[in-house]
Sequence to fold (981 residues):
Amino acid sequence: MAGNTLYGAGTGASRQHYLYRKGIEWLAWIGMLFCTGVTVFILLMILGYVLYQGASYINWEFLTALPLPAGETGGGIANALVGSAMVVVVATLMAVPIGVGAAIFVNEFPSAQLGRFVRFLAEVLTGVPSIVVGLFAYALVVRPLGSFSGLSGSVAYAFIMIPIILITAHEAFRLVPVSLREASLALGIPKWRTILWVVLPVSSRALLTGVVLAIARALGEAAPMLFTAFGNPFWNLNLKKPIATVPLLIYTYATGPYEDWHRKAWAASFVLLMVVLVTSVLTRVFLRGKSNE
Amino acid sequence: MQGEPQVINRPLGRLLTRASGKLVHPDAQVINLGDRFFYTLTRGLAFCVIFLVILLVLDLFRGSWEAIRQFGLKFLVGTTWDPVARQFGTLPTIVGTIVKAFIALLLAVPISIGSAIFISFYTPKWLRPVISYPIELLAGIPSIIFGLWGLFVMVPVIRVLQVWLKANFGWFPLFNGPAVYGVGVLAGSAILAIMITPIIAAISRDILLTVPRTQIEGMLALGATKWEAIWKVALPYARTGLLGAVILGLGRAIGETMAVTMVGGNSFDLIHSLFDPVHSMASQIASEFAEATYSLYVSSLIYVGLVLFGITIIISLLAQLLLWRLSKGRIAILE
Amino acid sequence: MKVKGFSIVAAAAVLLLSGAMAMAGCPTKGVKELTGAGATFPYPLYSKMFSEYNKLCNVKVNYQSIGSGGGIRQLQELTVDFGGSVGIMDEKQKAETKAGPVLHIPTVAGAEAIVYNLPGIQRGQLKLTPELLADIYLKKINNWNDNRIKALNSGLKLPDLTIAVVHRSDGSGTTFIFTNYLSKVSQEWKDKVGFATSVNWPGDVGGKGNEGVANSVQQIPGAIGYVELAYAKQNNMAWAQLRNKAGTYVEPSLEGAALAADQPNLPDNMEVMVTDSANSKAYPITGFTWLLVYENQRDEAKADAVANLAWWMIHEGQQYALPLEYAPLKGAALKKAESLVKRIKVNGRPVLN
Fold:
């Protein structure tokens, strides 16, 4: 299209050169299309396979019953669903104050070197392998308390969530116009109230997005649960005791000897995937009105 | 950075004065008691983050101390991992990890940057989300699901490919390995490539969208084709950021645990071909930590964890330095 | 304390009167939850047993399969009430416990099958000797058409295929039993490799868990591997006949495992590997799985619960073993297990009786 300006003008050698360039343009287009196609195709394949394997096993019982012992067909993962939810909620309660509080410090008191360092640290922390986080939570909580617990799982999840929340919150605060802050301060409202009553409400949607994304990320992690939340075949609502979580259950079932367990692993993967995908889609829809990128 | 509320503090803040006998930071030097409290509180929370990191590092050092004292830096170049003889060295896993991660990059970088270019420059604006959302969703799939899929669906395909490669190009040393296994360097690299593609693609897209449209339109107006404009203007402009995205993908590939454990083959030997099964550092920890029965063994595994931590931190630092100015917060989200 | 002690006696008396042969029933001291961890090997059985136990006694026993080594370590650290293991704790591990000596109470025995993937050769058709198996795992025999394999299997058409040796990549009790067997039958294996939950393998593919090994064997033509019997059955895998110590070729079976476990000269502490049994019908790659319990308990109520649970597991619990492919305790092994449970003490006094 862009080359059209040259089109009529060229004859002979220049026309040949034009065709050559046009050819390159085509090749590039096809190449890029191919790359995009491959990426989307693989995604659809993985999604499709999990849906296909998992959907056939999903029913009301699977979502509401307790697991049955090995070798018996039926039963469900209700305790793991509740357990995952509890562990993540507590993790969120730990991670949000630290993440958001530190982000306020980083953004609202920007001349402190400390703030910049903390932000940098958070970026680096997102790269810590999740298995290392699990080892850490074991040493920090499980060993001193003398028991595996949902709480230690929450600590591991919180460690994964804090940097994500910190970074997204910081970005959210950055988007709040300075004029809003200045207007508030000009009215004689102290800085801390300006932050709590102006900056936080204005950026609340972006903040929430960050929190939801952090939750979605944590929900899928199996490795940090191995030595913390530990798993439990029964109902347990006590966070000081071992508790079942969905990713760990998938791992146990997938590596077990029974065909039925494998089907349950796929079905649980299906549930997990649905939760993760639905939250991220909802978050996007939610955010849409905000950023027009 | 620009237009931050620090403007407000400046008249007071630049003068470093003494309040209540102590040196006070300009930001903290405020009239309102509530502000003082709020400053202290949020600073405390920020310190929390630093404190956690220090704890983590101390913990890793404490856990691996026995192995560090026993083997020192020789641990990094030792090629024996013998729990019975109490001899530990981890060179093969380090090599395995790095080779897998780099092959994954080799596969993922063209594909992901290609997709990013396609989305940023060849797709009409209304269509962009339709293509890029699914790609970003791919980044949210838990790694254990990648592992399951990889083991049951991808590995058989890789096996056929490997057997064919060996039959036709077996003279090439890299293809002269145990092709029928399926699991191994190539399978591990492939699953890693699939996992890091959406990350690199999404960040690259963001970076490419920051290229000023006027520059590209200028090229087009001069008669360049679109590809020429991209190749000569957009890519050079975004070079640093793209490199940052790639390095971030590398970091993810090196730290990945569950999926690699399931398709990497998990053997403890130095690799000689693309088909050899081999551990990576994370998969070795995941595989053996539960069964490590004496303290030196546990300590050696935590030493592996420490090395892994060190490598990922260095890579992460590098990526952040490159992306520093461009970072839009997505990086963390997509990890 | 006296009252409580009395109530146990009373409960036991009631049980005896009601005709039950068991000496103990449900815990009576208010413990409603127990946590255990360890071997993956008995996990399916334990999950079944504990589910039934919960129905019976309303005590929730949470057993997590984190591996034998993990079970030992968590017991040492006192983060669990009991451990599960298919390996015996060595002297160093015993020295590292936080609460003194640990009892190894056997619960069931299990067998491991040597599985292979050879086109056209069915389950039970391939014969192997211990020496051949050791040499295959030592990578001294590399092809299925090796003369020594051929000589033993004259009726089979063995293909010209490289042997892909598959092993567990994760540390595991399954590996412990298997390498213990190889160490008994091959001096070279013992010297070069030895036995443990994970060893320095001479070669080839590692699979994570039984799942990983089974998958590799099923997918790689020419592969050989070792998995638990339940696993081989569930996945319809081809397994080899193995020559046992008496010279008989036997297929893996529960009967063979039970015979191996029912030896006349079992030690009182039951810390014994029953691989390579001398019984002519026994299957040689067999091992016990143990509950690991501190002999001297600290918490009276917990001790009561653990002891009662252990007692139930080696008696009523045994009925769930066979359907799930485990060999129940018999004869001498059962007697010795009983006396081990009776050794569980609180403040120097036995909990049961």
